[in-house]
């Protein structure tokens, strides 16, 4: 596994998907790197549009790209919008990766996800489990498209010598999460439901599934910090998992979110809703060997996420949140 020094300072750095949860966290973190940050809104350049992407890259010539634009969602969205998840993600990945190569971009980071490993891969999930078994059926279209993206980054490296790397983040949460009532990820969904129940004085919150699946969660500003670290120091075809290496049951998580929100009613579980993969935890040995580990505890991260959820109502976008001098933003000091 090669290691190299790649300087971001003074470079034209494109964050694709800068208004998304990951993209906004990258923007906050990159503000400390003295790079020339490039962004473009979807209304100007739809990344599914190959000609528009090529023209934009030819004009702006980014030297580094974080490919954090994607069609992303929770279990219901993945299972319902199957054609969109496949088409959008295939088109975005292939357009951006090819345009980056054609304009001689020096470095690109592609974002995979822990949910694209095989459904029954041994836990904790190692990077070499990729493609070693059948996928989780509920998000197979998303996984197929994302795996194609990983393979493109790998193939452009082996055929053209392009310095394209791929990371595999675990479940993320934090400022800029999607709070859609049906299409959100679990922590965002829980924050919203507990908050609304608290405000309306509701006594019972129903959590989807049995509460027994175990999941790992990473605060999104920690992810951004890991990505900058890898962009600067890592150059190799092997995937790199990004997570905390610790998991928690959904039932325990629900109690933690309820406490952070201040909800004091009852919590029940709707076992008729799908659980998805029984357990999902990343092996983060490779990442720690590369010199990075997460610093935000789940308890602190959930409080910060809840603060950000409430700040959303004052009209601030996550990419406009204050930029810290160092460390993740809005860190809570524990007594
Ligand atoms: N969220 C997680 O838990 C998680 C976990 C593992 C990996 N990841 C990966 O991290 C990356 C970012 O995820 P995220 O959670 O930040 O997603 P997100 O909040 O939904 O943001 C996605 C971004 O992509 C942009 N986008 C989508 N389709 C586009 C299109 N056709 N043209 C231009 N822009 C488009 C969106 O633009 P608009 O603002 O216009 O909608 C948005 O800015 C994805 O590759 C995802 O697979 C996420």
From TrEMBL:
Origin species: Bradyrhizobium agreste
Binding residues annotated for substrate, in chain numbering: 193, 208, 215, 275
PANTHER family assigned to the protein according to its UniProt record, in alphabetical order: GDP-L-FUCOSE SYNTHASE
Signal peptide: none
Recorded name of the encoding gene: fcl
Keyword Oxidoreductase: yes
Enzyme Commission number(s): 1.1.1.271
Residue numbers marked as site, Important for catalytic activity: 113, 115
Pathway: Nucleotide-sugar biosynthesis; GDP-L-fucose biosynthesis via de novo pathway; GDP-L-fucose from GDP-alpha-D-mannose: step 2/2
Presence of the UniProt keyword tRNA-binding in the record: no
Family: Belongs to the NAD(P)-dependent epimerase/dehydratase family. Fucose synthase subfamily.
Positions of NADP(+) binding: 17-23, 146, 169-172, 185
Domain NAD-dependent epimerase/dehydratase: 13-243
Enzyme class, UniProt record, top EC level: oxidoreductase
UniProt xrefs under CDD domains: GDP_FS_SDR_e
Active-site residues, Swiss-Prot/TrEMBL: 142
Substrates-to-products reaction catalysed: GDP-beta-L-fucose + NADP(+) = GDP-4-dehydro-alpha-D-rhamnose + NADPH + H(+)
Pfam family, one: Epimerase
Function: Catalyzes the two-step NADP-dependent conversion of GDP-4-dehydro-6-deoxy-D-mannose to GDP-fucose, involving an epimerase and a reductase reaction.
InterPro entries per record: Epimerase_deHydtase, GDP_fucose/colitose_synth, NAD(P)-bd_dom_sf
Keyword vocabulary terms for this entry: Isomerase, Multifunctional enzyme, NADP, Oxidoreductase
Identification of the protein by name: GDP-L-fucose synthase
């Amino acid at each position: 596994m090669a290691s190299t020094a790649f300087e971001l300072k003074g470079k034209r750095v494109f964050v694709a998907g800068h208004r998304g949860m990951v993209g906004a966290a990258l923007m906050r973190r990159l503000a400390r790197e003295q790079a020339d940050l490039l962004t473009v809104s979807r209304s100007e350049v739809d990344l599914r549009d190959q000609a528009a992407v090529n023209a934009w890259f030819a004009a702006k010539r980014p030297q580094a790209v974080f490919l954090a634009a994607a069609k992303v969602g929770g279990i219901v969205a993945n299972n319902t919008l199957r054609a969109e998840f496949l088409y959008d993600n295939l088109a975005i990945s292939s357009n951006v990766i090819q345009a980056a190569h054609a304009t001689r971009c020096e470095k690109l980071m592609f974002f995979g996800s822990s949910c694209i490993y095989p459904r029954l891969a041994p836990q904790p999930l190692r990077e070499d489990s990729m493609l070693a078994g059948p996928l989780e059926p509920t998000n197979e279209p998303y996984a197929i498209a994302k795996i194609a993206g990983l393979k493109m980054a790998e193939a452009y490296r082996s055929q053209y010598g392009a310095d394209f790397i791929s990371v595999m983040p675990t479940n993320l949460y934090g400022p800029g999460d999607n709070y859609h009532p049906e299409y959100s990820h679990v922590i965002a969904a829980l924050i919203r439901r507990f908050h609304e129940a608290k405000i309306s004085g509701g006594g019972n919150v129903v959590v989807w599934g049995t509460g027994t699946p175990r999941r790992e969660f990473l605060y999104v500003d920690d992810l951004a910090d890991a990505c900058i670290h890898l962009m600067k120091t890592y150059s190799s075809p092997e995937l790199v998992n990004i997570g905390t290496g610790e998991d928690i049951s959904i039932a325990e998580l629900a109690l933690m979110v309820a406490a952070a929100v201040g909800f004091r009613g009852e919590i029940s579980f709707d076992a008729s809703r799908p659980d998805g993969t029984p357990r999902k935890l990343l092996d983060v040995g490779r990442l720690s060997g590369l010199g990075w580990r997460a610093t935000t505890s789940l308890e602190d991260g959930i409080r910060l996420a809840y603060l950000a959820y409430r700040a959303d109502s004052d009209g601030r976008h996550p990419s406009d949140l204050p930029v810290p001098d160092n460390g993740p933003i809005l860190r809570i000091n524990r007594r």
